[in-house]
Amino acid sequence: MGRTPTRVGVVGYGYWGSKHVRVLNSLPDVEVTVIDRDEQRLREAMSNFPNVRIATDIADELEALDAVVVATPPALHASVSLQAMNAGLHTLVEKPLATSVEDAEALVTAAETNNVRLMVGHTFEYNPAVWKLKEIISSGELGRILYIDAARLALGRYQYDCNVIWDLAPHDISIVSYLLDEVPHRASVWAQHNIGNVHADMAYLRLEFQNSGAPAFVQVSWLHPEKIRRVTVVGEKKMAIYNDVSDNERIRIYDVGVDPAQVDEGSSHDYPVSYRFGDIVSPYVQFREPLMLQDSHFIECVRTGKEPQTPGQRGLDIVKVLAATDVANSTGAPAETGASLVSASGAGNGRVRP
């Protein structure tokens, strides 16, 4: 006798929803229902995955499901997730968890009230290359971390219901929080809209961390000529770069740096620092699809009742940072996030890996 199939509904068959359907449909003992009001999308889903069920309204499917993946536009995350959890369904919500702190808090409360698992889709916290970067930082190889710089840039995928910060920055905020084991307590923003007059399509963020002391700088853009997904960690001893679009060297460690120079006060020709140059090393990181790791972990949590590595509270903390960027952008001054100081236990502690 085989395992009783886990019945999962994927609500929204757009960019991310189609990816979730592909992954979940490949997992053993998982039955997938695609839920979308767009008939063209349902036809596409049936064409790509003939064995999935289709439906147009989640309300009609609640009793036939064990769990849902919410991959709708962000503005619908809260209402769809509440409907699912109030029906006793475990719920995975794409980032951001919600579009307001109040809605995110309501989701966390609903999960506790209904005794169901709420998980947020911070996919990069399930990326083996990010796990490796955290391992390098934690080992002390880089020395004291001076700052982290992240860039997530590309051309296109403009959103109608949120700005570029809410669309792209959740990834990098969750990555740097995971790397530093701490959620930023203050955010500063410079943003601009170049196309249209509604949502900013490029922005720079400065995130401050109370315990680590190392700031993080995040650049996001929908208006950039090349696709960039990069995190640079600058330490006193060494530096490291995580490049997610690299085919074979996603992590590079640079044995380079600078030291204060001992120079004569009267000299006008010496540099104020001395430079160190050494080897560049690229540790081997076996590629495993982060979305596969994330969704497999979600199914495990559904079946066993274990707490997800990126639980609802984690999603709430990131939403608090995003809300602070709205305040900072409107006032021109740094804004407090009110997020938990340490909330980034993350996926890289070994419990997600087989």
From TrEMBL:
Region described as Disordered: spans on this chain: 332-354
Domain Gfo/Idh/MocA-like oxidoreductase N-terminal per the UniProt entry, residue ranges: 7-122
InterPro entries, per database record: Gfo/Idh/MocA-like_OxRdtase_N, Gfo/Idh/MocA_Oxidoreductases, GFO_IDH_MocA-like_dom, NAD(P)-bd_dom_sf
SUPFAM superfamilies: Glyceraldehyde-3-phosphate dehydrogenase-like, C-terminal domain, NAD(P)-binding Rossmann-fold domains
Domain GFO/IDH/MocA-like oxidoreductase: 132-239
Protein name: Gfo/Idh/MocA family oxidoreductase
Organism: Pseudonocardia eucalypti
